[in-house]
Amino acid sequence: MNKATEGLKRLRHLDPAIMTATLHTLWRDTRSLGWLVGEFYRKELQYHGRVGDRAQPDQLHALTGEQLDAAKPVLESRLVHPQTRLELRNTPHLPYFLFGWLDMSGKDAPVEWVKDYTRDDANFVKFLLQMRSWSMSDRVYYPLRKANISTFLDWDQTLQRLGKIEAGEISGAMATDIAEIRQAIEEGKERGD
Hints:
Blueprint: H1 3-14, H2 16-29, H3 33-47, H4 65-79, H5 82-87, H6 94-105, H7 108-117, H8 121-130, E1 135-136, E2 140-141, H9 146-150, H10 155-167, H11 172-188
Antiparallel strand pairs: 1-2
Helix pairs in contact: 2-4, 3-6, 6-7, 8-11
């Protein structure tokens, strides 16, 4: 658990008025939406038992249910702003953010954003690179899992589009990126893929 979450958990019990003001600032002004939505808010949704199967006892929650509910419209209003939507393209750990957004708002808004973002071939390739996860055994691997992509884009269409881009006239950098994606797809194959 990070220090911000621990501090909020303490503040929640010590001074509700300061906690309210702190949360107001957090929801409206935090620049790192990737952390805020993909890590902090998503974990609270899980801890409250609203998504997944990770419900936790109340003493582990940083937020009350009311505070969690109050944050959603503020965060969603930030995510519809055109400038914010452009900046999301450079969000570190994009998969965490997208799955957090999905847990918070449902599938429509994040899927719409991904389709808009990936309209351009260069952004499509960048998106696939961003959606890789990592694992380690004898070395570090960066697999691209069908399940992660299929949540936002049709997997078969993704593979077809990647092949079409690869077959066209592309730069050396784009060819290198596509080779990395191809390797990541192989590393990410699950049984039955």
